[in-house]
C-alpha cells in the first residue's frame, strides 16, 4: 500500500524491481555541465498535430497546459490516487507514468488476480483519459482489434468501422492468449500510431498507449510474443503476489464494501490530464545527459550481447529506450540531468524483455533479471 509519508520510498516487492516512487526532489549536488545529446537519441515527445480528420476519434481535450513543475506534481499525486483502488503496486504505477511521458507502451506481467486490469482502469480514470479493453482470445481476429471495412447497404459502399484501438489507453488483456497473427495487428499501431486499411492510414488519438497484460509464459494456452513485438514495448513491469500485510489490507477493503467496478465509489478522481502528459514530455526532453552517461548506456547494451548465456542482446533501440526512461525518471525526481543511478534504476524494467536467452541457459535457471544483475555489477560506472 502507498506509504503515508510522501517522501518515503516503497520497498522493492520482488528484489528485482528498482523502480522507486519519484516524490520529493532529492538533495543532490549541483548539476554537471550540460552536454549535447545526439538528436537521433532524443525521444519523441510530440504527438500528431493539426486537425483531426473526419471520421476519427479526436484527442482528449484537457485543461490549459500547465508548467513543468505543475505537471510533475500532478503525476506524483497520481500514484496516491491509484492507491485508493490498487494496493501495493507503486513500482507499476511509476512504470506506467514513465511510459506515458516517453510516448511508449507497457507490458504488464503477472499471474491472474494481481490487479493488472484494475490498475489500468484506475490509471485511466485518474488521468481523465478514454480507455477500451480488448480481451485477447484464441479466436480473436486482427480486424476485431484495428477495425475493418464494412459494407453499407444504404450507400452500396464499404465504410470503415473503427476498432477499439481508437482510444487513449488500449488495455490489451492477456495479449499472449491470442495467436501471433492477431498479435501482429498491433505492430503498426504501436510503432506508427496509426491503422492502415485499404491503403488509407488513419491516425490514432493523442495521447495513445498500449498497456498489455500477459500471464507468465509457462502457463497453459499462451503464445510467446515475438521479439519484434516485445521490442516495441518501452518497459515491462512485473506484478508479483502481494506480501501478507498488503493481502490482508486488500481483503479488509473488500470486507468493507469495495467494488472494483465502481472506482468513483472508491474515491478515485482525475488528478492529471493530457495537458500534464504533454508538459511532462516537453520537460523530460530537455533533461541533459552527459556523454559519459550516454557511453554507460551503450556499454550496458553491448555487455548483454557478449554474454555466452544470451542469444540476442539489447539492440540500439533498447539503448535509446533506456535513455528515454532514464531522462523521464530524472525529471520526475526533480533533476535536470541524468545520473548513472537513473540508468541503473530503469535498466531492468526497460531491458528485461529485450533479451533472448539460449535454451541451455534457461534450463540452468538463468533469467533475464540475473543477466542484467551481472551486467550492472560488471560494467564500470562513470564517476
List the main descriptive attributes of the protein structure presented here.
two-stranded antiparallel ribbon, Rossmann fold, globular, disordered N terminus, 2 domains, five-stranded parallel beta sheet, 383 residues, alpha/beta, 14 helices, Helicase, Ruva Protein, domain 3
Folded structure, characterized:
The chain folds into two domains: 63-286, P-loop containing nucleotide triphosphate hydrolases (Rossmann fold), CATH 3.40.50.300; 287-383, Helicase, Ruva Protein, domain 3 (Orthogonal Bundle), CATH 1.10.8.80. Strand 6 and strand 7 form a beta hairpin. The strands form four sheets. It has a five-stranded parallel sheet. The chain has 14 helices and eleven strands. It has 383 residues and is of the alpha/beta class. It has helices at residues 68-82, 90-101, 116-126, 142-146, 180-183, 186-192, 227-230, 244-255, 274-285, 291-306, 316-332, 340-351, 359-363, 368-378, and strands at residues 106-109, 131-135, 147-152, 157-162, 169-173, 194-197, 200-203, 209-214, 235-238, 310-312, 356-357.
Amino acid at each position: 500500500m502507498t506509504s503515508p509519508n510522501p517522501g518515503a520510498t516503497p520497498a522493492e516487492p520482488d528484489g528485482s524491481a528498482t523502480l522507486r516512487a519519484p516524490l520529493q526532489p532529492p538533495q543532490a549536488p549541483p548539476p554537471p555541465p550540460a552536454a549535447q545529446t545526439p538528436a537521433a537519441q532524443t525521444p519523441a515527445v510530440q504527438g500528431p498535430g493539426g486537425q483531426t480528420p473526419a471520421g476519427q476519434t479526436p484527442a482528449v481535450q484537457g485543461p490549459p497546459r500547465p508548467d513543468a513543475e505543475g505537471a510533475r506534481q500532478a503525476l506524483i499525486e497520481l500514484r496516491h490516487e491509484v492507491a485508493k483502488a490498487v494496493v501495493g503496486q507503486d513500482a507499476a504505477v511509476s512504470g506506467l507514468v514513465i511510459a506515458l511521458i516517453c510516448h511508449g507502451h507497457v507490458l504488464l506481467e503477472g499471474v491472474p488476480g494481481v490487479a493488472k486490469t484494475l490498475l489500468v482502469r484506475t490509471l485511466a480514470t485518474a488521468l481523465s483519459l478514454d480507455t477500451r479493453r480488448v480481451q485477447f482470445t484464441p479466436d480473436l481476429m486482427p480486424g476485431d482489434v484495428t477495425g475493418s471495412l464494412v459494407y453499407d447497404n444504404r450507400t452500396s459502399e464499404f465504410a470503415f468501422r473503427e476498432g477499439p484501438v481508437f482510444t487513449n489507453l488500449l488495455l490489451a488483456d492477456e495479449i499472449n492468449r491470442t495467436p501471433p497473427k492477431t498479435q501482429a495487428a498491433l505492430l503498426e499501431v504501436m510503432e506508427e500510431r496509426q491503422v492502415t486499411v485499404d491503403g488509407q492510414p488513419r491516425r490514432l488519438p493523442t495521447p495513445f498507449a498500449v498497456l498489455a497484460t500477459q500471464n507468465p509464459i509457462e502457463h497453459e494456452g499462451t503464445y510467446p510474443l515475438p521479439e519484434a513485438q516485445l521490442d516495441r514495448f518501452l518497459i515491462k513491469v512485473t506484478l508479483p503476489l502481494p506480501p501478507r500485510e498488503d493481502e490482508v489490507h486488500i481483503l479488509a477493503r473488500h470486507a468493507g464494501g469495495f467494488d472494483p467496478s465502481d472506482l468513483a465509489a472508491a474515491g478515485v478522481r482525475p488528478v492529471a490530464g493530457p495537458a500534464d502528459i504533454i508538459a511532462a514530455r516537453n520537460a523530460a526532453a530537455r533533461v541533459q545527459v552527459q556523454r559519459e552517461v550516454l557511453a554507460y548506456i551503450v556499454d550496458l547494451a553491448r555487455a548483454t550481447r557478449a554474454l555466452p548465456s544470451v542469444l540476442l542482446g539489447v539492440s540500439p533501440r533498447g539503448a535509446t529506450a533506456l535513455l528515454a526512461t532514464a531522462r523521464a525518471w530524472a525529471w520526475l525526481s526533480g533533476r535536470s540531468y541524468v545520473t548513472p543511478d537513473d540508468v541503473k534504476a530503469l535498466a531492468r524494467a526497460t531491458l528485461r524483455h529485450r533479451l533472448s536467452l539460449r535454451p541451455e541457459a534457461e534450463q540452468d535457471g538463468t533469467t533475464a533479471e540475473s543477466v542484467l544483475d551481472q551486467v550492472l555489477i560488471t560494467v564500470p560506472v562513470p564517476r
